[in-house]
Design brief:
This protein is an alpha/beta fold and about 650 residues long. Helices cover about 45% and strands about 20% of the residues.
């Protein structure tokens, strides 16, 4: 046992954030902490690390326990080189090195002056220095930094030039290099691009200590957790298994709690009826009194309340645009002399749902800024189509929101002619009600700021939504509500997200942004991953010798060289078939899902009373949107089928 919490209470003001929770952490624990924003998840990590103390209860820790805590945000790390900061954060190693250097200097000046105890201490320090990996610390630091996206030039550059997301990676690299007994990680995936996220998942799988982390990335939690801890309304519930298993177990537990509470309520009602009926009868006094005592002693069952979450909001229907939404020709984008993107050829059509992927710093946000006309091109032309206006959700909300305004003022400032009732309604849909609307934006949590930014989008309907990491800081239920709303949105969507579940559900095409250039892949996220893997596999395979093909006297190529070319072509065609088949299966799956929902909607719309239901217009709009999506997938299915047939014919010709 590494850490043991028993009956821990933590109160802020008059509100109990954690109300009598208990939790044990062993050296093999892989715990994912989930719950709504503000429920106390970060408070739990601070208590585990010792940064905070409980108001009641006990926290026991193993002797000489080494902990590493990753916070949610980092303000600054100074202007030192990144690699120096990572190495110097290894405090135990630095202490050993400092003492070792002192003794070695003394030995170099006058070796005979060292006492026997100092010589023994020198040998001990050298052993400890080796044990802590001191002799290869720089190479290890570079490997960890490389996994998190730093090339060697970045690793040796000043940390003062890095953005907040990269600073978080520096802190994470320091923790991972130290390899403590317990890693405590608060939203570690928020600032990782896909390659770094894949590396990080692999690192955690091989990490030998315990890990307790907060995350709202469902795919990440599913692959990592061996148990899930849910914090809600001050209580802690523990579930053994993956995140998917947690969802199933929680649903079953809530169902059982509901049945047990219903049975108890029925029993209580029967007892109360008996008491009321026979209270006045002297012959029944003893039975009545015993039942009164029974009720007093009975421990009432409370059904665990559902998390307070976003429910059923929808983006307003914007004006209909032309078929061409964005057209960029020959674009060059950057800042001053620093070119970020070259030779941009971007064509976005009405109804597209484009996910931008690629390493951090590759130009995804720059491309979003160009599309939204927030950043003028250095060369080339960017045109928005007829009736196109942009709704923009920025990754760094601190630059978009006025921290000195109240929530209500922030929403009103962007709402145009919307009525005060509409403004408060939009805020209420995002859980800002009552006195919440009078809070200063600057005191809101990260999740609350994200919800406010989304509420502002609702108040200014736009046919083109551009979203830069919209799920950062949102809890799982809020992410699901946002996905639902975006799936129903009838306009055009361009977004960046590292939440793979979010991308998989929404994207109809993926645009890879890397190395100053972009490449578009039709199909969903799974199809993109398959195509990328096929491309990487081909790049890794040997391409044949460097000897120039010899020609026979008749001018024809040597038969051996011809066979080699046919074999290479077969390999390329076979590599192309796999992703196409996977995309076809994915498209067919989405078509069936859409058809099933359309059948449900048609059944509802066929009912005579449906026309009087207030939700009738929404159902009609949803049906229209689903029908459009189905038509897009059907067209894509035909394209894939044609490509498969063409590839199969080419493959046959190589036999």
């Amino acid at each position: 046992m590494l850490v043991d919490l028993q009956n821990v209470h933590r109160i802020f003001g008059t509100r109990p954030v954690l109300d009598g929770i208990s939790l044990r952490i062993t050296n093999t624990s892989r715990i994912g902490v989930v719950g709504p924003n503000g429920a106390g998840k970060t408070t739990l990590l601070r208590l585990l690390s010792g940064e905070d103390e409980p108001d009641e209860g006990t926290i026991s820790r193993a002797r000489n326990l080494r902990m590493g805590m990753l916070p949610q945000e980092v303000a600054t790390l100074g202007a030192r080189p990144v690699i120096d900061l990572v190495i110097e954060a290894q405090t135990e190693l630095m202490e050993v090195q400092e003492e070792l250097d002192t003794l070695q200097v003394k030995m170099a000046v006058d070796a005979e002056s060292l006492s026997r105890q100092e010589l023994d201490r020198l040998g001990d320090l050298q052993d400890r220095f080796a044990l802590f990996g001191g002799y290869e610390i720089e190479s290890r630091a570079l490997r960890v930094l490389a996994g998190l996206g730093f090339d060697e030039q970045m690793a040796r550059s000043s940390a003062g030039e890095l953005s907040g997301g990269w600073l978080m990676r520096v802190v994470m690299a320091s923790l991972l290099l130290r390899a403590p007994d317990i890693l405590l990680l608060d939203e570690p995936t928020n600032h990782l691009d896909l390659p770094s996220l894949e590396w990080f998942e692999g690192f955690l799988q091989s990490f030998r200590g315990a890990v307790v982390l907060i995350s709202h990335d469902r795919t990440f939690l599913d692959g990592f957790c061996s148990e899930v801890v849910e914090i809600s309304d001050g209580a802690l519930e523990r579930y053994v298994g993956s995140y998917t298993e947690y969802l199933a177990a929680r649903a079953l537990r809530r169902e059982q709690q509901g049945r047990e509470a219903a049975r108890q309520n029925q029993r209580v009602a029967e007892i109360e009826r008996f008491i009321t009926r026979f209270r006045a009868k002297a012959t029944k006094a003893r039975q009545v009194q015993s039942r009164v005592k029974m009720l007093d002693k009975m421990q009432r069952l409370d059904v665990t309340p559902e998390m307070r979450k976003l429910r059923g909001f929808k983006f307003p229907d914007p004006v209909r645009t032309g078929d061409k939404v964005v057209d960029i020709q020959g674009g060059v984008a950057g800042y001053g002399d620093h070119i970020v993107l070259r030779d941009l050829q971007v064509h976005i059509r009405r109804g597209d749902r484009l996910a931008l992927v690629g390493p951090n710093g590759g130009g995804k946000t720059t491309l979003l800024d160009v599309i939204s006309e927030r950043l003028p091109l250095l060369q080339g032309e960017c045109r928005l189509g007829a009736n196109v206006s942009v709704g923009y959700f920025a990754q760094h909300l601190v630059h978009e929101l006025n921290m000195d305004e109240t929530v209500l003022d922030s929403a009103t400032a962007i709402a145009g002619s919307a009525s005060p009732t509409s403004i408060r309604g939009a805020l209420g849909a995002f859980l800002f009600s009552g006195d919440d609307v009078d809070k200063k934006v600057g005191v809101l949590s990260g999740g609350e700021k994200a919800r406010l930014a989304l509420a502002r989008l609702l108040l200014r309907p736009a046919p083109l939504l551009i979203l830069d990491e919209p799920t950062n800081h949102l809890d799982v239920t809020s992410r699901q509500a946002l996905e639902d709303a975006l799936e129903r949105f009838p306009g055009t969507l361009v977004f960046v997200s590292h939440d793979r579940s979010f991308v998989s559900r929404l994207a109809t095409a993926v645009v890879e942004v890397d190395g100053g250039r972009i490449e578009r892949y039709e199909g969903d996220f799974d199809s993109y991953l398959s195509q990328r893997e096929a491309r990487l596999r081909l790049a890794r395979e040997p391409q044949g010798g460097g000897v120039a093909p010899q020609e026979e006297s008749g001018g024809r190529k040597n038969s051996k060289e011809r066979r080699r070319e046919l074999a290479q072509k077969r390999k390329e065609l076979q590599a192309r078939l796999g992703p196409l088949r996977k995309e076809k299966a994915s498209v067919e799956r989405r078509m069936e899902e859409l058809k099933e929902r359309l059948r449900e909607l048609d059944t509802m719309l066929a009912e005579p009373d449906t026309y009087n239901d207030p939700a009738f217009p929404d159902w009609l709009k949803e049906r229209s949107g689903k029908a459009d999506r189905l038509e897009w997938f059907e067209d894509r299915w035909v394209e894939i089928e044609e490509e498969l047939e063409k590839t199969a014919k080419e493959l046959k010709s190589t036999d």
